[in-house]
Design goal:
The chain is mostly beta strands. Helices cover 10% and strands 34% of the residues. A ten-stranded antiparallel beta barrel has the order 1-2-3-4-5-6-7-8-9-10.
């Protein structure tokens, strides 16, 4: 047989043997484990941008919110001497849609002013001790001050009748507000009242929750039952009454006896 013809077959045999030897496990050999993928630490969340920037006002914020924040009692100085001359109270009512201001509570000239929105415009209706009710609208609102000016009113034939014609609120600090009222009659300012108000320390600015009703008193424990009275000793039966013997009956003479 030609040896050249055997060379490819012999080479193939040697290749197969080499592959078999390589694939067979070798005694004492160390198995190489695949390298674990490098551990990746989760990246720390990125710091919020503009963390120090002030938050924007809520989308539903209205000019009335500034007055709703006044809820509570305020000590008012009317003479500029730093003393409290009266206490002004603010209440939020009607499902948070109205603010009621009370001036000189408990006095003969107690008055209220109602602040609300009229189609987005801040309005004030003042129920005055003069017996009229001027209505004013905000003509200026700078964010730090609000100016209300007369529009019309109840029980007023014209603007020339004496009435409160305007009021300006200055929001100086969270706990300090100045309100300046001006009267008007016959084309001229008649009087001026300045309320320098500071929030009362005892006032939280929030409507307090109703007091928790006191727990009902526990019913008194029933008195311990007393011992039953001992039955009275039975008395001796009375002796039966003595019966008198019947009286003897006289014998009857037989017939014919003499």
């Amino acid at each position: 047989m030609n040896a050249r013809l055997l060379l490819p077959s012999a080479a193939a045999s040697l290749l197969i043997a080499a592959l078999a030897s390589a694939s067979a496990p070798q005694t004492g050999s160390t198995t190489i484990k695949p390298a674990a993928p490098p551990a990746t630490k989760p990246s720390a969340p990125a710091a919020a941008k503009d963390a120090a920037a002030p938050k924007a006002a809520p989308a539903d914020a209205t000019p009335l919110d500034r007055f709703k924040a006044l809820a509570g009692d305020w000590n008012a100085d009317l003479n500029g001497d730093g003393n409290t001359d009266t206490v002004v109270n603010y209440r939020v009512i009607a499902n948070d849609s109205t603010v009621v201001e009370t001036l000189f509570a408990g006095e003969d000239h107690e008055m209220i002013t109602v602040y609300t929105l009229d189609r987005g415009t801040l309005t004030a209706t003042h129920y005055c001790a003069l017996g009229n009710q001027p209505r004013m609208k905000a003509s200026s609102d700078s964010g730090k001050s609000v100016v209300f000016e007369y529009v019309d009113g109840g029980n007023l034939a014209s603007r020339d009748e004496n009435h409160m014609d305007s009021v300006t609120f200055e929001f100086l600090e969270p706990d300090r507000v100045v309100a300046q009222w001006r009267g008007y009659e016959k084309g001229a300012t008649t009087d001026h009242a300045r309320f320098d108000m500071r929030r009362a320390k005892s006032s939280t600015g929030k409507v307090s929750a109703p007091a928790t009703p006191a727990a009902p008193a526990a019913p008194a424990a029933p008195a311990a039952p007393g011992k039953p009275a001992a039955p009275a000793a039975p008395g001796k039966p009375a002796a039966p009454a003595a019966k008198s013997p019947p009286a003897p009956t006289a014998p009857t003479n037989p017939a014919g006896a003499r």
